[in-house]
Amino acid sequence: MSDKLAKLVDELSTLSVLEAADLVKLLEEKWGVSAAAPVAVAAAGGPAAAAEPVEEKTEFDVVIKDAGAKKIDVIKVIRQLTSLGLGEAKALAETAGGKILTGVGKDAAQDAKKKLEEAGAAIVVE
Predict the structure, then answer these.
(1) Which of 16, 62, 110, 119 is the most buried (most CB within 10 A)?
(2) What residue segments make up the domains of the chain, in order of their start?
(3) Phi then psi for 103, rounded to 5 degrees?
(4) Could you give the CA distance from residue 39 to residue 17 in angstroms, rounded to a whole number?
């Protein structure tokens, strides 16, 4: 890095947060650009930056762990929840870790889990 750039970095490091924000505004106006993304990246890297909110999961998978003792009832519920035929639903009920529903909303996943557990299956919503 050249001496000129090193000196500029040193000078900019002495600015307060408010002064840095004012500098950004002035440079945006002068050059006709937006520094929104670079400023967000720089702010996120700072020690005083607030943690970014974690996005809430919106799509869930309903996974069968065990069909339980009432396998026929579980197969019936699987067929109600999906468009699978009898043989496919039976195979899914017998496959631990098989995904019955994928990419469904939270309410649909919880509803499916409730119905399958009432039928006797062990279910996990991921």
Answers:
(1) 62
(2) 3-45, 60-125
(3) 65, 35
(4) 11
Per-residue model confidence (pLDDT) at position 35: 62
Compute the distance between CA of residue 96 and CA of residue 74 in angstroms, rounded to an integer: 13
Which neighbouring-strand residues pair with 122? 66
- Mean pLDDT across the chain, nearest whole number? 80
Strands (DSSP E) contained in the chain are 60-66, 98-104, 122-125
Query: Rounded to whole angstroms, how far apart are CA atoms 62 and 110?
Result: 8
CATH code assigned to 60-125: 3.30.1390.10
Distances (CA, A) of 100 to 18, 68, 91, 119, 123: 53, 15, 11, 14, 10
CA angle 125, 61, 105 (to 5 degrees): 95
Contact, 27 vs 35, CB < 8 A?
yes
Other Cβ atoms closer than 10 A to 24: 16
pTM as predicted: 0.54
